[in-house]
Write a structure and sequence with these properties.
two-stranded antiparallel sheet; about 5% strand
C-alpha cells in the first residue's frame, strides 16, 4: 500500500512540475499589452485553470508556489518584471490570485456533484478568485504605495472587464479539456 501511495505522490509531483512548466511557457509565448492597462495579456490564466482541473488542491498550491517563487527569485518566468520588484506591479496581484485560485478550483471541483457543468463552474470560480485577490491588490498598490489612486470605474474597466471575455473562454476550454485529460491520465 505504501508503494502505491508513493507512486501516486511521485506521479502527482511530476504532473505538478509539468503544469509549472506549461504556465511558464504560456506566460512567455504569447504576451501583448492591452491599451489602457499596465498588465499584459497572456495565456497563463488558461493553464492555471487547467491546473485546478487536473491536480488535487495541495498539488495546485505546490505548482503555483513554485512558479511565483521562481519569479520572485529572479528567474525570468513572468511576463514582464522578475525578482522582488514584481511586487510593485499590478501583475503581482494576479499572481497572488493564481496561488489561491487553482487550489480553490480543485477543491470545489472535487466537492461539487459530478454533473456535466461541474468543471466549467469550478473554472468560473477560479476566475472569480483571481479577480477577488488581484483587484484589491491593484487598488492598494496604486492608492497607498504608488500614491496614484485608481478610480473604481478605471479599476473595473482596465483591470477586470478588458480581460473578462477571454478569461471566460479560457475557463470554458479548461473545463472541457480538463475532463478529457483527467480521463486520459487516469486522474479521477
Amino acid at each position: 500500500m505504501a508503494t502505491q501511495t508513493s507512486r501516486q505522490s511521485a506521479k502527482l509531483l511530476c504532473y505538478s512540475a509539468l503544469m509549472c512548466a506549461l504556465i511558464i511557457v504560456s506566460t512567455l509565448w504569447i504576451r501583448f499589452p492591452i491599451p489602457g492597462t499596465d498588465v499584459l495579456f497572456t495565456t497563463q490564466v488558461f493553464f492555471v485553470l487547467l491546473c485546478g482541473q487536473l491536480l488535487p488542491p495541495r498539488y495546485c498550491l505546490y505548482t503555483l508556489l513554485l512558479y511565483v517563487g521562481m519569479g520572485l527569485a529572479g528567474v525570468p518566468v513572468f511576463s514582464s518584471v522578475c525578482g522582488p520588484s514584481v511586487l510593485s506591479t499590478p501583475s503581482f496581484g494576479y499572481l497572488l490570485g493564481f496561488i489561491v485560485a487553482a487550489p480553490a478550483e480543485a477543491f470545489f471541483r472535487q466537492k461539487m456533484p459530478k454533473k456535466q457543468s461541474r468543471d466549467f463552474l469550478a473554472a468560473l470560480l477560479g476566475i472569480v478568485v483571481i479577480y477577488a485577490v488581484a483587484l484589491p491588490y491593484v487598488a492598494l498598490l496604486k492608492g497607498v504605495f504608488l500614491s496614484a489612486p485608481v478610480p473604481f470605474s478605471v479599476l473595473m474597466v482596465s483591470y477586470f472587464l478588458v480581460f473578462l471575455p477571454l478569461d471566460l473562454v479560457k475557463a470554458f476550454l479548461a473545463g472541457l479539456l480538463g475532463r478529457r485529460l483527467r480521463m486520459a491520465l487516469r486522474l479521477n
